């Protein structure tokens, strides 16, 4: 009987997806609507994600345009962006909110590149934890022969290596995007 790696593969892919989500929220000096994913607006007494009360578009490389579905939400949107940890200053004209993305300094780019490496390392640790769980399950499986156990452990290691390599590629791509001028 061979070991079923379905759950292991899914959990390792989950670590990659989590890394992609985290890296999407790191500013690169270019406008990206994903940097607003964590911003929540108080809308009629409830906290709701910004993208549920407004449309977000990118008319220029360093400008986000936020158009509220309800004009009454405009002030709440400006307040939510101001209190967020984005460090951006929204400009409202009464109908829409303009969010200019400032050019980043070289020092800030290098700092963010370190953050990318740290996030990638967290993802690798998650993948290694999944491998450890798989290895434990393989060793506890009494129906497998020694050769099957050895083959399953090799397969778990190969999955780990492949996912670690993919994480490195994702991080390298983000670093390249951050560091290019």
Helix content: 40-55%
The number of helical elements comes to: 4
Low-confidence stretches: none
Specify the biggest β-sheet: 4 strands, antiparallel
Q: How many beta-strand segments?
A: 6
Compute the separation of the termini in Å. Answer: 54 Å
Mean pLDDT: 89
Q: Element order, helices and strands? A: HEEEEHEEHH
Cα radius of gyration in angstroms = 22 Å
Q: Tell me, what's the shape?
A: elongated
Q: By helix and strand content, what is the structural category? A: alpha+beta
Strand content: 15-25%
Strand order in space, largest sheet? 3-4-6-5
Question: What does this protein look like?
Answer:
The protein is of the alpha+beta class and about 180 residues long. It has helices spanning about 5-25, 75-85, 105-140, 145-180, and strands at about 40-45, 45-50, 55-60, 65-70, 90, 95-100. It is built from four helices and six strands. The strands form two sheets. It has a four-stranded antiparallel sheet, covered by helices on one side. Helix 1 (about 5-25) packs antiparallel against helix 3, helix 1 packs parallel to helix 4 and helix 3 (about 105-140) packs antiparallel against helix 4. The N and C termini lie far apart (about 55 Å). The mean pLDDT is about 90. Keywords: Cytoplasm, Protein biosynthesis. Responsible for the release of ribosomes from messenger RNA at the termination of protein biosynthesis. May increase the efficiency of translation by recycling ribosomes from one round of translation to another. Belongs to the RRF family.
């Amino acid at each position: 009987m061979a070991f079923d790696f379905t759950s292991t593969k899914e959990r390792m892919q989950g670590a990659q997806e989590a890394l992609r989500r985290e890296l999407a929220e790191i500013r690169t000096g270019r406008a990206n609507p994903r940097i607003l994913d964590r911003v929540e607006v108080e809308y009629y007494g409830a906290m709701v994600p910004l993208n549920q009360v407004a449309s977000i578009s990118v008319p220029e490389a360093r400008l986000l345009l936020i158009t509220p579905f309800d004009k009454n939400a405009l002030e709440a949107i400006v307040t939510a962006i101001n209190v967020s940890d984005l460090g951006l200053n929204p400009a409202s004209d009464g109908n829409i909110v303009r969010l200019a993305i400032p050019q980043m300094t070289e020092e800030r780019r290098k700092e963010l590149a370190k953050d990318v490496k740290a996030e990638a390392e967290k993802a690798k640790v998650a993948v290694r934890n999944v491998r450890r769980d798989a290895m434990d399950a393989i060793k506890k499986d009494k129906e497998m022969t020694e050769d099957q156990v050895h083959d399953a452990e090799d397969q778990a290691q190969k999955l780990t290596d492949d996912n670690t390599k993919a994480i490195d590629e994702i991080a390298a791509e983000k670093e390249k995007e951050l560091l290019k001028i």
